[in-house]
Every structure is written in structure tokens, then in C-alpha cells.
Amino acid sequence: MKRYNSYYVTVKMTQGRINKGLIAIPVSLSKWFPDHNGIIKVYLDDSTDLEIKKYSSYNSSTRECRIYGMREWFEKNRIENDDEIVIQIIDQNNFKYKLIRESNFIIKTQQIQNKFDNSIDEQEALQHLDEIVNWTRTKEEIVKLSEFHRLIRQTSTIGERKRTIRRKASAKESAPPSVKVLLNRIYSGHCQICDFWFLKKDKNPYFETHHINPEKDDYIQNLLAVCGNCHNQFRYSNVRQEFKEGWISKVFFNDRVFEVNQIVFKQKFEEAAKKIFI
Questions:
Q1: Measured between alpha carbons, how far is residue 29 from residues 85, 168, 277 in Å?
Q2: Which CATH architecture has domain 2-104?
Q3: Range with the lowest mean pLDDT among 40-44, 124-128, 132-136?
Q4: Average pLDDT estimate for 204-216
Q5: Where are the CATH 2.40.330.10 domain residues in the chain?
Q6: The model scores a pTM over 0.70
């Protein structure tokens, strides 16, 4: 069994249980399920239709809970020995769950993440971030940190920053919408340097993205969420920077020192990193 977070886990299948057409729920998960024999309701894969399945609660002889009537679904998904099944809680009070093969769950999650990475604007990126939250049934607090961590892991090569043509002049591209959304959700519009923030007329926080190395690409360690004042100080003042484990940790503007707020050094980021699902 792999526990991803408090909303879903995976259970490993054995050939014996596949032959019997049942899913065995270990005692450690029994609190998720009814404490008496009866029925439960499940969504299978992407289906929006609930199916009724026979269920037996934990007892001393089997030492597990069991969901029956799964043979047809096993055959459809070609479930084999050692395959993992994702179990999600949909409505624990009414005993509603979702079952999906882990490999299919990962594929669908990665498809949504790919759409998130390639969003054309921040509104679309927000929609796809919410889609990840809803699909994985994971709290946004965990998802935003998990996605941030995923972008860190993706930094395998660092390229030159792309340029676009604007009014016959060459201008460096801004950060991708997906990165802006994560920076906004993680830092809530607060400047990572001085902590200043304000709301725009549309009630959304205003911030700018600063490239620590202006010539390098939009990899996450090269970006900061900053206020307009600090952004201009990076450009016009005497700047000295200190780094910790590859992350900018201190900035000196004309010898005035600022500690950089980096989520990667916070305890909650370390805890969220342990719950990453993909």
C-alpha cells in the first residue's frame, strides 16, 4: 500500500484476489469504510455513474475489508498481479469511493499537468490547477507545493531565455502562466524580498516575476515574485546576492540586506514534498 495523502491511497493486487474478483482493503484503511457488512457505491475509472458493490467489513479471520464484484472491471483494465489500484474517498459518510488503476490515474494526472504547463494565460493555468485538485481530490495547499516541486525536478537543462518581437524591438519573454500562478498561490502576491503587496482593482494581488539571471530560462530557481520597487532595485541599484543550495537566499540593495522568502526552506514544503503523487 502507498499512501499519497489523506484522500487517496493505492492497494496492491494479488493473483488470488484477482481470480476471486475482489479488492482487499488492509486494516489500516478500515476507518475509511463501513464497520458492518453491506454495500458501498463506487465510481470506476472516469465514469460518472455509481455502481453498487458488495462489501464485507474487517473481521479476525480475513484480517481485511473486501470489495466484491470486481471481476469484469479487472478484465476490462487487464489487472495483473502486483498492479496498484487507486482508491479515493468521494463521500465517506455515504460510502462513495472512486477506483482506478494507478497507471491510468498517473496518465490522466500527467495529461492535466501538461495542459497546466502549456497554459496560454493565467486564467487557463488556474483552471488546470483546479482540475488537478479535483481529479486527485487533494487539498490545493498540497497540490500547489507538489506542482512547484515537480517543476524543480523538471529542471534538467537550463537554456537561454527566449525572446519575442514587440513593436519591432526584441523583448525577453515573461514567465510562463503556470509558474506565475504557482508563485501567486504560494506567496499570495507578497514580494519575496520585502513582503510588500497590494490588491489590484480586480481584487487579485499584483506582483512581478524577476529573472535572477536575465539571460537564463524560466526554470523555477531562476524566478522570484517581487514588487515593482524591488524589481527596479534589481535593475538600477548596486546588487549583491547570496545563494543556499542553488536558491537565492539573501539580496543586498546598496548594502541593505534582505532575507529572501523561499518556500523550499519551510517545513510545510518538506512535508508536502513527501505527499507528491506524480
A1: 14, 62, 18
A2: Beta Barrel (2.40)
A3: 132-136
A4: 92
A5: 2-104
A6: yes
